[in-house]
Amino acid sequence: MKVLLIEDNDKTREWLVKGLREAGIIVDAVADGRDGLHLALEHDYGLIILDIMLPGMDGWQVLQTLRTAKATPVLCLTARDAVSDRVKGLELGADDYLVKPFSFAELLARVRAQLRRHPAASHQLRIADLELDAVRHQVTRGGEIVSLTQQEFTLLWFLASRAGEILPRTLIASEVWGINFDSETNVVDVAIRRLRRKIDDPWPLKLVETVRGMGYRLNTAEE
Fold it and tell me: What is the Cβ-side half-sphere exposure of residue 95, based on CA atoms within 13 angstroms?
């Protein structure tokens, strides 16, 4: 479950990224409308959170251009509460509209509601006998429910969404924790060990592979 946040206010962007990641959602975040549109067109996101007042290209232009190519759900953020603005957003193809200032709890509820309404965008993943449900935040292996923390689920979802790829520690740290990886920090290795104990150790088929000197990979059923 990956969300794109397009928000030019640094404090608001950092606050939302921190909160969404703590809720187990992987986030890409940019401050410019043109950069946001490029990412939205190049990648498949479960949801786009789009501020209206943006440099480079405003939110209305981003939304209008996006809708010529994709139906990705869009939640618009704006400081303007005029009915005409809300109507304009909906007519251009927005799926929801939130007026600033807002509570993070309300935004998170709206994000999850959009992902429930658009299951094709939020995805369910299956690797061998491992199944992940991004909306429920539920994992099963061999038909048994596996209890994971929010962070463990985010890590597993990232590995599973790119199953078969070797993922460097730097990339994992950036995507899952939103941090620049320090070679002296073992946060990724510790998290992988904990994840393995839950999703690999009780089963004969091991899915999480260490690729020495390169990173980690979640093996596919064919491997």
Answer: 22
In angstroms, the Cα distances linking 95 to 27, 48, 171 are: 19, 10, 31
**Coil, strand or helix at 174:** helix
Q: Which residues contact 182 (CB under 8 A, 6 or more apart)?
A: none
Whose CA is closest to 163, among 197, 208, 120, 119? Answer: 208
- Could you say which DSSP state residue 167 is in? B
Kindly give the confidence (pLDDT) of every residue in the chain, 223 residues in length, as a single tens digit, with 9 standing for 90 and above. Answer: 689 999 999 999 999 998 988 887 889 999 999 999 999 999 888 899 999 999 889 999 999 999 998 888 999 998 877 677 777 877 888 888 898 889 999 999 999 888 777 655 546 788 889 999 876 778 999 999 999 988 898 899 889 888 888 999 888 887 787 666 565 568 889 999 999 999 999 999 999 999 988 899 999 765 4
Contact 28, 22 (CB under 8 A): no
Distance in angstroms (rounded) separating the CA atoms of residues 170 and 162: 15
Q: What is the 3-state secondary structure (H, E, C) of 24-62?
A: CCEEEEECCHHHHHHHHHHCCCCEEEEECCCCCCCHHHH
Q: Closest Cα to residue 189, out of 206, 203, 208?
A: 208
